[in-house]
């Protein structure tokens, strides 16, 4: 028989958990949230082409790059009980969800100023605050699951949360500068951005209302035309 090189496992979504422990099972699903958020990013970028979502995703990728560098600089091993491989300081899951939840929170509370339309009433500040709290609690659950599953020590998870929080604040300040200095507006007007149909509406409009007013207007026109034909 021919000798073959041993196969490796792509552990992107491979999570170890205790099948006899329901909490461990829930934590295994929580570990998949970062991958799910990447799918959400890709879906929103493709469907809405919003500049704010593009900026947030760019920050998310930059945050992951920082985590990659920190792990290889610190070189701290994961807990001995963990069956996987790679360095554990800081936790990439904790850093990912902390950046996401805090960036979303700062956007909803400080940058997002939605205006009501004839067809839609946007979320109030209190509702946006509650949504932000839910996002932060969810991030805390994901971070805690890494400790429960023995993928990271508490110190590694706290370091990941701290790194994600610091980078989130820095990135939000950076994107605020890009907006106030006119760089975002300039970027949207470039040839490539116009060809890709990039727009910047979500700062003043809810994603829920994106295109809805135009849809309602089109329906009214169709009904008006149909009514006019019947009258004739």
From TrEMBL:
<dbReference type="Pfam" id="PF01569">
    <property type="entry name" value="PAP2"/>
</dbReference>
<keyword id="KW-1133">Transmembrane helix</keyword>
<keyword id="KW-0812">Transmembrane</keyword>
<dbReference type="GO" id="GO:0047874">
    <property type="term" value="F:dolichyldiphosphatase activity"/>
</dbReference>
<dbReference type="GO" id="GO:0005789">
    <property type="term" value="C:endoplasmic reticulum membrane"/>
</dbReference>
<keyword id="KW-0256">Endoplasmic reticulum</keyword>
<feature type="transmembrane region" description="Helical">
    <location>
        <begin position="26"/>
        <end position="47"/>
    </location>
</feature>
<comment type="pathway">
    <text>Protein modification; protein glycosylation.</text>
</comment>
<keyword id="KW-0378">Hydrolase</keyword>
<dbReference type="GO" id="GO:0008610">
    <property type="term" value="P:lipid biosynthetic process"/>
</dbReference>
<comment type="similarity">
    <text>Belongs to the dolichyldiphosphatase family.</text>
</comment>
<dbReference type="InterPro" id="IPR036938">
    <property type="entry name" value="PAP2/HPO_sf"/>
</dbReference>
<feature type="transmembrane region" description="Helical">
    <location>
        <begin position="130"/>
        <end position="149"/>
    </location>
</feature>
<feature type="transmembrane region" description="Helical">
    <location>
        <begin position="91"/>
        <end position="110"/>
    </location>
</feature>
<feature type="domain" description="Phosphatidic acid phosphatase type 2/haloperoxidase">
    <location>
        <begin position="53"/>
        <end position="172"/>
    </location>
</feature>
<dbReference type="InterPro" id="IPR039667">
    <property type="entry name" value="Dolichyldiphosphatase_PAP2"/>
</dbReference>
<dbReference type="InterPro" id="IPR000326">
    <property type="entry name" value="PAP2/HPO"/>
</dbReference>
<protein>
    <recommendedName>
        <fullName>Dolichyldiphosphatase</fullName>
        <ecNumber>3.6.1.43</ecNumber>
    </recommendedName>
</protein>
<comment type="function">
    <text>Required for efficient N-glycosylation. Necessary for maintaining optimal levels of dolichol-linked oligosaccharides. Hydrolyzes dolichyl pyrophosphate at a very high rate and dolichyl monophosphate at a much lower rate. Does not act on phosphatidate.</text>
</comment>
<keyword id="KW-0472">Membrane</keyword>
<feature type="transmembrane region" description="Helical">
    <location>
        <begin position="156"/>
        <end position="174"/>
    </location>
</feature>
<dbReference type="GO" id="GO:0006487">
    <property type="term" value="P:protein N-linked glycosylation"/>
</dbReference>
